[in-house]
Structures are given as structure tokens and as C-alpha cells.
Records
---
Amino acid sequence: MKAVALTQYLPVTNPDSLMDVELSAPAVSGRDILVRVEAVSVNPVDTKVRAPKEKIEPQPRVLGWDAAGTVVAVGDDVTLFSVGDEVFYAGDITRPGSNSEYQLVDERIVGHKPQSLSMAEAAALPLTSITAWEGLFDRLKIDPDVTQDQKSLLIIGGAGGVGSVAIQLASQIAGLTVIATASRENTQRWCDEMGADHTINHRQDMAAQLAELGFPAVDYIFCLNDTAGHWATMTQVIKPQGMICSIVESDVPLDMEPLKSKSAGFIWEFMFTRAMYQTDDMAEQGQLLNQISKRMDADSLQTTLTEHLTPINAENLRKAHAMVEQGKMIGKIVLSGWE
């Protein structure tokens, strides 16, 4: 099968950073399904894993953690899918990725593709939708079944893939007052289009901007950009008994002391946790993807695809990685089709 892989961890400008290769198609067993991959998306995690380091892979390593495709075979223990089903998923960071014609994935972390979306539109959604859903409803403990129009949520970094979905989920499902941050005119406009009630600039004094809007403090914060850089502001503006969640690792220790007097909390969100540790609730990811799919088909949510390249090959994946590494993406970049 065709695939794009690496054996060395190199700058994306190096042609050997991602290479076209031929690999053997994997055999299916257990709870795995074998998917013919038809579209993939590129996320910051792809570029972080590929980033230069002193390591050589003895066999080509396939990256990629977002895909849409069709089931072509199922393991003996599979109960949720049949051959011919169209699916979408983010996968498992401990296993070979989606940048190949065929991929094995555990059925529990797979959802049925929205019927109303193309493969490319669907491939833009899994990783960001899972991250946004888990961050809001599992980590911040926002109740998706109760409208919370008296409570406020600050999303730091609203125009990226996760932010684009989080704005929609928070406003449409939870009914929260959503304040997103964006630093450019086009990204501010995008946040507004996604459904943010207010948009402020995270490169300026966020506390002052929030106060001007009538929010000297907020109930929840979802940090999708520079946790350490925004930490002082987050601990300042979080309400007593409020909650902060971040998806961005910090290269310095975070000072938890400012949260103590407020009885406020902080929690991480990492969407690979359930698959990585084979948690008892691993199937929640498949179920939440099905929820996303239903809402897409009901036209209550919209895809976040903004850039589309074809075909899926090393050259285009290097282009996509370079675009993501610039840190200025709005929405998601997707590749589809094989030559």
C-alpha cells in the first residue's frame, strides 16, 4: 500500500522529512477495523512528533491522527461496524497513523462519518472535535444537557481547529456566553462566524478587555494557546470555584498558588489518553464522534475545513506541516485522494 512515512526526524524543508513509501497492508484482528483512508488532516501534534530530534527509526514510521474512509475488513470481535461503513476518527498515537492507504484502528474510538459531509470535510473534524468535547464536558465538567446561559467561557485561541469546534459546542449545546480570543482581523471574524458572543485579542491585556465587556471574571477557561504565557491572566480572571483546562504543554512549572484562595481548579486535556491507556471508558470517543456526526447532519454544526490539498503524498504533507508550523492556521487543512 502507499504511505507517507519518516525514518529520521528532520526539518520539514528537508525532502526526507516525509517520504513516499510502499508498505505491506496490515492484517485485521480482534476489535480492530481496517479502513481504506480517503482523506486526512494535519494537526499540531503531527508537526511536534515529526520535529527534529536525534533518533532513527529502524522501519518507516507513519504519522497522521485524523482520517475519514471506508471499512474494508473487520476483526473477529468487532460489533460496531461492518464492511462498507464510512467512518471518521483520530486514532491512537501509539500505533501507525493515518497517512497510509489502509489503517488499523480500534472500533471503540471510531465514529460513523456524517452523511452530509464529504470525506475531506469529515477528516477535518475528529481530533479537534474529541479534544473540544472532552475539554468542555469531561474535563471542565460542563453539563451538555443543561443550558448554562448565565455562565461564561473564555476560549484562548479560538480560530484554530479545536477552538473552532469548541466555540460551536459551548454556544450551541451548553448555551454558554462564549468569549474567544484571536489576534488578527481575519481570525476574529472567523471566531464570530463560529458563534462566539465576543472576541478579544490575546496579544493585548485580556483582563482589561474582559472587564470592558462586563466580565471581570469568567466561570470557565479553555486554553488552546501558550499555557505558560497566559497563566497569570488565567489565574487572575477565573472566578472563585471556577475551572481552567489546557491542551498546551508548559515548558515551565505552573504556579498553582493563585488558585488556592479561589478554590479554583486546573486540569489537562489530552485526547489520546483513552486509547493510550486503554481506559474502561475508551468507547466514549466513538460515541461522542457519533454525536458530532448527528449534529453535523442536522446542520447544527459546521465543518472547519479551510485548506484542501490533493493528492495525499509526501510533497503535499510537507506543505501542510509547514503551514501548521507557522501557527497561523484558521480552521483545518485536509488532504484527500491517492495518486
Note: The longest strand covers residues 32-42.
---
Amino acid sequence: MPDDSIHLREPVTDRPASKASPSSLSLSDVPVPEELLLVAQSYWPEPAGSAPMMTDLATAFAAAGAETTVLTARPNYPGNKVYDGYADGSQDSKTVDGVLIERLPTIPPAGGGMKARLIHEGVLHAGFAAALARGRVGRHDAVLSLCPSILSVAVADRLTTPGGRHIAIVHDIQSGLAGALGMGGKAAVKAIRAMERTALNRADAIVVLSEPMRGVLEELGVTRPIHVIPPHVDADAVHPLPRPDQPPTALYSGAFARKQGLEQVLDMAGHLAELMPQARIKMRGQGGLEEELKSRARAMGLGNVIFQPLAPKDQLNEAMAEGDVHLVPQRPEGAAFAMPGKAVTILAAGRPFVSTCLPGSALATLEAQVGAFLCTPPEEPRAMAEAVAALLSDSARATAMGRRGRAWVEANATRAVALDRYARLLLGVAA
């Protein structure tokens, strides 16, 4: 992890003036609570989803001087199988990068359906509650919880001392995603919605990743203060590198899950083969849809698509450089309920990307502000292919967009900027 010498510019959203000047803001400049508990079902060494962002936030708090504890699951995402070396519990209590990680067993949600997810989350969070009852984890004055799962938010309330501060971070609005993606019936979605409303209204403040997510929570009946803090990235660990000597390459990296709408990438690949035969598409990841995607690619005869595993964390920066253009597909019905954190990592790497999103969505709004990537209509693979081909064939344009994206990250989405905003919320001094 980088030390506390990161220098950043002033962020532009939800941050009152700091005692430190923006140009000299570093981890050591940020006042933090003496102790912090982070409750999240995903954490290091999981390489995708919310885990990288939450890991970086926890280690930033530790580097700034907070005694930081993470309550989490034995790692199992995105493969839905507990990682080798963790199933026996031998690593259930371990300090890594200054953070004490307390892990609990769970039943990974094989298949990804609603019932499997409920079992996974129910078992895990019952373990969280038992850890409190048995004294393994105590109550804290400063607590951060992460949704998913909304059960993490509910349990975190019990882990907060009377008079303490509990900040709920909402990366996914689970009721919205469940309804949009057809997971569970109407009764299940209604129950999740009620649980979200109740749990979030017990937090002291809520953080979402985009303005559309704030609007969804307000419509849900959440009345607690809601702050927008975009996804952040370790901008020292991820930075622009020269492109390797390779054919023109479009890269998707992340979970192979339903909400990504990855079938759009395969459909796009067929059009890209016509527009730019020399180009290739790397699909790097793992998850429940992996075999389905590979089978579909074979059936479509997509010789320009290459499947690879996710790169190890210590090779992430080099892996990001392999994409001349990155891909951020989304299913449009779920775009208001989540914000892809991978978008910020791509911008930090100084690469443009092409996303599928609707006008007014979080990514469409960011595209208009920053001009560092292109948005195309969902379910229009030809339009997506044309956008990818346009960037692959115009290196000057792609480079300029990459520079704009990197500048935006340095001003708004580095670990020191995020630490400052979250610390102010936990200390009760943020607007």
C-alpha cells in the first residue's frame, strides 16, 4: 500500500473546506476516529465487486492512525466458493496492512438465485451477531457498514455504541436490483425494500455512489442524510502505463454476473469483427455466468474473444494497461441501483471506456462532466462496436480522454479524498 505522501487536488462533491490545503492533502492530514469497525460481506483478497474499494478504505484509515477492524466473510466472491486456505478457519483472525480482519463462515450462493443469496447472507450475519454476543467483536464509536448486504447495515447498528456514529455505505440497492433483474417474486422484493428502509433509517448517515442512487433511496422512504461520494481508487497503485505491443484490444475485467449484461459484449464482438478484424476482446474475470458466456461465444464463432482469469492484485496496473479501450456494460434496468466501481479504476489507469447506459444514469452524467469515455444505448451492440472501433482507431483521441479521466480521479476519487469525506461523516463534522 502507498504511504501517506499522496498529494491531491480539491474534490468537487460533498466536501466542506479542509484545514489542510487541497494541494497538500495526504492521509496524515485527515483526522480520523481512534477506533473504527467496518462491517462488510466482501473484503480482500476478493478481487472484484465492492471488496477492492472497501479494502482500500480500511487500509487508508489504518494508515492514518485509526485502529481498524473489519468484520467480514471467508472470501468466496466472485467464484461463489470459499478460497483455498480459508475454509478451515485458520485465517479467521489475521492482521493485514494494519487492519485486523475477523472472518465468519458462510454458505456461498452457488447459482446466484434469490434463495441461495438469502441463505448466504443470513448465515453470515447470524455469525456477525454471535461474534458480538460472544465478545469476539465489541461495540465501536465509529462504524462503517456496506450494502450489499442490507443485513450488514442492520447488524452494524447493534455494533455501534450509544452515541456513536454509524455510516451506511450503499453500493447496491438490493431491492431495486432484485426487482429489475427478476430475482425473487414481488413479495420478496417488497420485504427487502422494507428491510432497507428500516435499516438505513437507523444509520446516522448514508453514502451512495451517485445522484440517481440518492433519488432511489429518497423514493424508498429513507429520511436520514444521504451523501454522494463516488467510488475511489488507490491512484498510486493504478496509474497510466504505456500500451504493450499488441493488437488493438478492448478489455472487460470484473465479475461474470447477471447485472453486468455481458451478453451485450458478445453481441458487440460480432459487429467489431466486421468493423475492425484485427481487434480483439479480452474478457477477464470469473463468476456464475462464466461457462454460459464461454459456451455462447463458441456457438457464435467469436474468434476475436479471449477469456482469461482476473489478474492478481500485484499485477492489476499492468493488466489495466492491456486494454486500449475498456468495456463497462450494464443492464439498463439496474443502472439506477448501482454504480460500477471499475469505471473509476479504468479512469485512474488513463484509459477510456465504452459503457452501455441510458441518459440520466450515473455514468451518462459523469460522461457529460468529464468527457473521458463514451456511452452507448443498452442492447444496441452495433452502436457499442462502432464506439469501440472509433477509439481503437484514433489513439490521439483515446489518449486525450485517458488524460481527462486521470485528472478527474486525482481531484475527486483518490484514497485520501475518500478518507477525508468518510472521516468527517464518522466524526460528525461533514455537511
Note: Residues 1-24 have pLDDT under 50 and may be disordered.
---
Amino acid sequence: MPSVTPPVDAPSTLPDPKLRIMLWVVAVGFFMQTLDSTIVNTALPSMARSLGESPLRMQSVIIAYSLTMAVVIPISGWLADRFGTRTIFQTAIGLFVLGSLLCAWAPTLPFLTAARVVQGAGGAMLLPVGRLSVLRTFPREQYLQALSFVAIPGMVGPLIGPTLGGWITQTFSWHWIFLINVPVGIAGALATIRYMPNARLPGIGRFDLAGYAFLAIAMVALSFSLDGLAGLGFQHATVLLLLIGSMAALTAYVFHARRSAAPLFTLQLFGIHSFSVGLLGNLFARIGNGAMPFLIPLTLQVSLGYSPLDAGMMMVPVTVAGMASKRVATRLIERYGYRRVLVTNTFVVGLVMASFALISPKVPLAITLVQLAFFGAVNSIQFTAMNTVALKDLGGVTASSGNSLLTMVQMLSMSLAVTSAGALLATFQAGIGSHHFETLPAFHATFICVGLITSASAWIFMQLDPEVVDVVKPEREEEV
């Protein structure tokens, strides 16, 4: 976390009232997008009962949203440059509201999953296009002030999502998790028409459609292959073909990027050592990190009998400890460097994840709360260190492209995290039995597996140069 926190009241110092309102529109859009990435976690068992599904097979609701965001994010900036920021931002809000309505109306799990794809397509464009509109509208001397204000709601959304989702589900119904987006989205769309300029980039070149297609196919095929056996019921041969197809598409992109004059993501990025290590570390370490917000509320409700609200409240120590440890992360990195902090902390995070295999009705509540708080603290340090090590050496033409690629990989890893956790749960549950009281051992085994995956990813960070000591203070804090 930076040593100086951006002021929350930044818009009040801006002279033009229309610009202040535009900032609020962008900030609220970012808040909705990040909120919906976590708000459904505590509502999954209620959704399952309503739709006649097993709560252990509801991961597609989360996967569809995050995977769609990973696929759509790379094209959002080009669309805004080509058609105008206001046009694309309005389109994003429209898709998000339409997806929310369809989610609330969904009569079956496949319908709900498809609706989350629509919602994710809109959500994927809200942040990058909104941020681009700020950069195109505000003078350079006001960039930091404006972007800091826009970023604050985006950081709050994922933090309050599980608790808010639990409260809404228990007080009303899970449908209102999506319906609350509708009036906010309509108001945002109307405000966008009046207050957001339709900034375009003259003379924009052609979009790298071939490169985009290769990457999109690789991401979707990989996610489907991981969820194929357990969630989708694919045969082994189908899963193998999907894995081969994913690797082939990724290889095809590499060859394409070498020949293309303007590839979607230049291969020069991978010549930057810290970026390459940070990108791979984000991909694999987040498979464990991203699984926990899905697994913890599900365990508490399905196996321990917690209500949605109580399960959401149990996530508060994770949030509070995570926020409190931000400054600790900065000091640790400044004192010990990225390599030592990331190697040690990644291993510790994995051990803490595996320790949730001890959770049971016999464990005192106080111990579980401490366990959750400690996980929140080390997990927050992990996010801060991983994000900044990937971005710290970028500059010039690589900064924008590298940041976009990192964001895409983060969203992909969230999808793979829930996909992997759901597949592990289904596999262990099939081996243990299908009775309700036997679900806890399946959760225990899954916690151990995701913990081992995370600890093993510490090897990636060992590849960082131990001689580098000129670390900079972390600047990127969004725990995407």
C-alpha cells in the first residue's frame, strides 16, 4: 500500500460539476463489477436449493463470470478507441443490467450460467473503459486524483461482497443479489449519456483479431478441460483433446506474435524477467488464493450448518486482517526484497490453506476466527507482492500492454481456481459418498490440495534474481 492514501473526497476538489458526476458514474460501475465477483459466494447453497442442484456443483456460476471477463478484457480498450468511451461504457452497463435481470430470472443452472456470461461481458468493459474515459477527459495534473477516487469503490466491492451477499440472501432471496444492479445500472446509463464525453482515438489501427482468437480459445479450452470430468461430465478423451487444443492455441499465438507487426501482447514483455516470473506466479499461486472465497462459505453452510449471513460474517476477519496488513507488506518488501518475501509468504499461504482441513464443529469459534484472520493477512501480502513484482520494471510501450496482460491472467486464474476447487470437491465427494454428513471430508481433502498447489508455486518466485535490492513501494493494490 502506498505510504500516502489517496483522499476519498477527491472529486469535491475538481472544478467542473459534470466531471465530478462522471467520476461517480465510473466509480459505481467499477464497484458493481468487482462486487459481483464475490457477492454470489455465500448465496451458492441457496441458489442450489432453488434450482434443484447440488451445492457442490454450483462453481459454474462463478467460473462463467470470471472466465468471460478474462476473454473480453483484452478487446475492451480497442472497442473504446474505435467507437468512443461513452458508447462502449453504455454498452457495458446495458449488458451488465441485462445479465443481472437474466440471472435473477434464471429457472435452471445452465440458464443462470449463460446469464453470468452476459453479465461478465458487460462487467469486463466497465473498469478499463471507465478508466480510459478518465484519462481522455481529465488534464494530466488531475490524473492521480481522479483515478484514485475511481479505484476506491473497486477495492471495497470484493471486501464486502460475501457479507452483503449473505445478508441479502437470508433477508430477501438470492435473486436480489442481481436485482439490486438494475436501478443502479439504469441510473448510471442515463448519467453516462449526459456527463461522459464520447472520446475516440483517431486513426486507430486494426485489432489483432487472430491473436485475440488464439488466446480466447486457449483460455476457454483450458477452463473447460479442468471442469470437464467433474462439472460437465466429459469423457477422458474429450478432456485430453481440450487440453491439447488449449496448448495448440497458445503455441499458435506465440508464432503469430512473432510475425505480427502489432500483436495483441508483444513477446518483448517476456524478455522482462520480473514480469515473466510475476505473471506465472500470479497464474499458479492464485489457483489456491482464488479457490478460498469459494470454498470457505460453502464449507460453513453445507457441512457446518451456518446460515448465509453467518457465513458471510465469518469472512469479515479475512477482510479486516487483509486491509491491516497492507503496510506490513510494503515494509517487508522494502526490507527483504521481493524474492525472499514471495518465496516465504507463498509457502506460508499454502500451509494456512491446508490448515482449514482441521475445521470441524468441534473446533472452537475463536480458533477458526484467528485462522481466517491469519489467512487474510498473509493472502493480502501475497497479492500486493505478486502484483507489484510483475509491474515494477515495465515502462514506455510495455506498461499498458503488460498491465492488460496481467489483468487478463488474474481473471483467468480466478476462473481456474474455482474450476479446480469444484473438480476436486466432486472427485473427493464421489470417492467418499454422497450423504450430506459426509461432505466435510471432501472439503478437508480439497483444502489440502489447494494448499499444496499454492506452496508448490513458491518455486516460481525462487527464479527471481536474489541480487535485486532496489525495490520500489508497491503501487497496485487491487486484489483482482
Note: The domain at 271-480 is CATH 1.20.1250.20 (Growth Hormone; Chain: A;).
---
Amino acid sequence: MLPLYGFFDPTYILVIAGLLISMAASAYVNTTFRKYDKVQSRNNITGTRAAQYILQTEHINDVGVQQISGDLTDNYNSGNKMLSLSEATAQSVSVAAIGVAAHECGHAVQDHKGYSPLKIRAAIVPIANIGSSLSFPIILIGVLLSWNQTLINVGIFAFSLALLFQLVTLPVEFNASRRALKILSDGNILTAEEVPMARKVLFAAALTYVAAALSTFLQLLRLVILFGGNNRRN
């Protein structure tokens, strides 16, 4: 069995570190969004109108725009070609809301132009979800079956698929933000003074994906330390 180290598992430090990183990133994006959500855009354009304008400008005619409930639940679904904006974004005329709306449009532009990393991420989603949900049961079964290292390794590999998904997500998210800022820089939606504010909002949002990847990596590292190799405990 695993040693209890006096009822304390030192590898929990990795879990705590990952949790703190995620909390810090979440707090930062919320603080940054709230700050620039108070700044009304000079052109007085709502997030919904900004999204519609961007899609029209990019000659994307098969993507719908809808408002959904929640706060910062904005997303683009390439499956049904729907760009969903949260209540905090759709009807707001703030610089922050427009930045978020433009970012989601960045994903629509990626889809429209056949951006490869976006396609890869979409293909990985079901595999990563299955791997993430089955990894711990497989590892547990392996431990219960007299520490079956083959099963344990399969479980660790299954969990690593979640990390793979998050690593592929990083370039997708950063690229969407770059596309969004380039579009916003034409001055028809945000002024030259407002674009740097939107950039800060999108940078803060991107950090949450970096934090998620780091947190998952630390969890994977913990699994490898506890169960990988020949770490059988008698």
C-alpha cells in the first residue's frame, strides 16, 4: 500500500500548487474584466453588434449570434456554427465586452479559414473527455489488482490526454485573440486608445488556459510519482 507519511502525502503539494495557480488566474481575469467593463466604448457598440459586424466584415454568413445566460460563459461552437455571448457581454457596450465578443469571433474566423489547431482540438475533445473520466477508475483497478502496472500505466496515459487537449487549446486561444485584436485595430469598433484595454482583457483570459494546463500537468506529475514505473508499495 502507499505510505501515509504520517497521514500526509507530500505530493498533495502539487495539487495545492495547481489549485492556487488556477485561483490566481481566475481572480486576475475577473478583476481585469470588471475594470474594463466599467469603460464604455466611445462608439457605443454592444458586444452583439460588434460580433455581427466582425462576422459580416470577414464574410462569414453561416454563423449565428445568440445571447445565453451566465457570466463570462461566451463560446463559439463550430458544430452548429453558433456564437454564444453571455449576458455580461451581449448587451454591454464596454471595452471588455467587445474584446470578449471579438475573441469568440476569432474562433469563428479560424473555423471559416480551416485553422488546423482548431480542427485538431475538436477531434481530441471526445477522446480527452473519455480519458479524463476513465483514468482514475483504471488506476484504482490496477492498484487493487495487486498493483497491475499495465493497467496503471493505461490510466496515466488516459489522463495525459486531458493535458494534450489543453496544450492544443493554447495556440487556438492565443491565435483567436490575435485575430480579434487585429480586427479591432481598424478603428470601426474600438478607438486606438481602447484597443490596448481590450488586449489586457484577452491576455488575462488567456492566462486561465495556461493555468489550466499547468494545473493538469502537476496532477499528471503527481500520478507518475505515485503510481508510475515500479512504485509498488508493499
Note: Helices lie at 12-37, 47-57, 87-90, 95-112, 116-144, 149-184, 195-227.
